[in-house]
Design brief:
single chain; mainly alpha; 13 helices; 79% helix
């Protein structure tokens, strides 16, 4: 029942937002934009996405202590990306744990630790880069100071969370143990306490200098590739924005991905982020809406294509 309700909420959110968008734009405008897509830039996007998948796989390999090879991680990552994108309420995050556990080489505790670390460090870089882009963006309309203050505030908060997670693990552990102890010493509580302890132990293992340096460098390059992918995709349908201007739009897209309630496959929420970003650069709503819908369609095509590639690699590996 709960799953059905979540799905209905996601579908309802997508339909409401799409109905609003099409009050200001016609679907034929979206088709017209897609007909003018630059094929060479789409090929460049393919390169960016491929490189992005490889770097993300390297980062995971480091965080799971090299228990899987890159060839094993890539299909898991591609399938997880598609499911996480399509499933409502971020339920797709659970598929990462499922796929990792199925390998029988990575424990659920280690998989959860790597996922938590990746999410925290990605959010940290998201807000840091938000601050950078907002200072380099030249054509933002309205009071840009609000964006800078918000970026600095949330960036500082994300940095604090990252530092607490990595270097104040003992404090977190003690607080959780006290909380669980107050709930009693039943078998489920003991199992939960043991699970949390083992997960935190794995997060502790990331505090080595080599792991911190490698994961941070990889995350920085991952974000550069994300910007390159999105900007090439935007150029293929003739964006008017500069690289730094559109990078701010990309960060807004990723910020909306943190929302607990998402449209199905991001439909509605993705477009909303693009429209919000573009209208702040003075682009009319009637132009921003068809552009956002076209961008999302192309984005979904890449996700689905690489997801299919991930499934095919997995089938081929299982047969061999």
């Amino acid at each position: 029942m709960k799953k059905s309700l979540r799905l209905l909420l996601s579908i309802g959110l997508s339909l409401i937002l799409l109905a609003y968008f099409f009050e200001y734009a016609e679907f034929c405008e979206v088709v017209a934009l897609l007909k003018k897509v630059d094929g060479m830039l789409l090929f460049i996007c393919f390169f960016f996405y491929s490189a992005l998948s490889v770097l993300r796989s390297f980062r995971i390999k480091i965080l799971i202590h090299k228990k899987l090879s890159i060839n094993q991680i890539i299909p898991i990552l591609l399938k997880y990306n598609v499911l996480n994108f399509v499933m409502p309420f971020r339920l797709g995050e659970l598929t990462y744990l499922y796929f990792m556990k199925r390998t029988r080489k990575v424990s659920v505790h280690l998989a959860l630790a790597s996922l938590a670390y990746i999410r925290v460090i990605d959010i940290l870089y998201l807000f840091i880069l938000f601050c950078v882009c907002i200072f380099f963006a030249k054509n933002v309309s309205g009071d840009i100071l609000h964006y800078r203050v918000a970026g600095i505030f949330f960036g500082s908060f994300a940095l604090l969370v990252a530092l607490v997670l990595l270097f104040c693990n003992a404090i977190i552990r003690n607080l959780l143990n006290k909380l669980l102890h107050s709930l009693g010493r039943t078998l489920p509580i003991k199992k939960l306490s043991g699970f949390i302890t083992r997960t935190l132990d794995n997060i502790d293992s990331y505090r080595t200098e080599g792991t911190l340096m490698a994961s941070n460098l990889l995350t920085l390059f991952i974000w550069i590739l994300i910007f390159g992918f999105y900007y090439s995709l935007a150029l293929s349908i003739k964006t008017e924005l500069s690289f730094f201007d559109f990078s701010l739009v990309v960060l807004l897209i990723n910020l909306t991905a943190l929302l607990p309630i998402q449209g199905v496959a991001g439909v509605g929420t993705f477009e909303g982020a693009v429209i919000l970003g573009m209208t702040n650069f003075g682009i009319p709503l009637t132009t921003a809406i068809p552009f956002s819908l076209s961008l999302h369609i192309l984005y979904i095509c890449y996700f689905v294509t690489f997801g299919i590639i991930g499934v095919m690699i997995g089938i081929f590996d299982s047969e061999t």
